[in-house]
Amino acid sequence: MRSAADLETSSIHKKSRFPRRWLAADRAALSEAMTALMLVTLARAAPFASGSLMAALLQLPFAVGRSSPVSRAGASWLVLARGPTSPLLLTMLAAVTWLPGCATAPLVQGSGLSSYDGLQQSDGKITKSRLHVKKEQVAAAKTISIAPTQFPPNVAPTLSGEQRALVANAVNRALCISLSDRFEVVAPGSPADLTVRAAVTHATETDEAAAGVSVAASIGTKFVDMGSVPIPIPRVPIGLGELSIEAEAVDRAGRQQAAIVWGRGATAFFSSPRVSKAGDAYELAGSFGEDFATLLNKGESPFGGVGFSVPSWQKISSNVGLAPKYAACESYGRSPGIAGLVGGKLGFPPEWTDDGAKAVPTR
């Protein structure tokens, strides 16, 4: 006896314009496409993950329910390892792997530092840098001021003045919030044990069309049932932005106590697409601020160790848009907070969610 479900399925197949053979091939192709995507995602994520994290990622396809697409993709891995490889799967792997997973920003040295002597290569997983720090002298400092970050028009002529100002202010704000963990931040121009000076030396625009496609694909998957485990959708790896910045901290006598030349590009897997030419530069500006602040707070390279630390309460509250620890940070405006987080997930330009620096009243 055939069940009602079997009869209904049979009826659907009879009414369908496509034969059973095509439907089976279609399901196999979909499984192979997901397998290709997951294999490439894991391969691209490997350089950024620790051994234990990578092991957990590899077990993910086999740890979920049998009915989920992820589990079926995991089963395809086993078939791939045991049997002949499908030409379609090989084609997909070749095509996706050929695309760059991130934009590699060059380390562009400018002319704004008082000295470039003693800079040593110190790279992170996705960041390149040359830096040095005099740990004892920096540790003895109590107060710090932050000069306005320089972003000359010729560095990124395709960005508007408003966009360059927004990126430069994002550097200052990130520096101010992170440095507040260790130093007393005073207003720019005020006497301080250390003064930070930074300048953007290289920046490329984000491809707005590619970012828009990435946002649409990411939002679209929210309305599709993908099983119990969400499938991460990487960005379209085209037109990813880059940023390079140099900065130094000098003492009251103008002697350099720390310096860095820093470069990073947006990645297809870890960067949020924003439909703005300044989208990636804006996000990378915040990353630079945190890295250079870590160099000064700890007196050592920010790219050593486990790469993760629990943020302080003042840092959390400042990043969600509450009042910063020191009044000097108010001049850079409040962080966009929850509105900025939601806007970033929806791909809104930072010009829409960030009010920028606080206007200085004129007398």
Automatic annotation (TrEMBL):
InterPro entries assigned to the protein according to its UniProt record, in alphabetical order: DUF3313
Source organism of this protein record: Rhodopseudomonas palustris (strain BisA53)
Protein name stated in the entry: DUF3313 domain-containing protein
Domain of life of the source: Bacteria
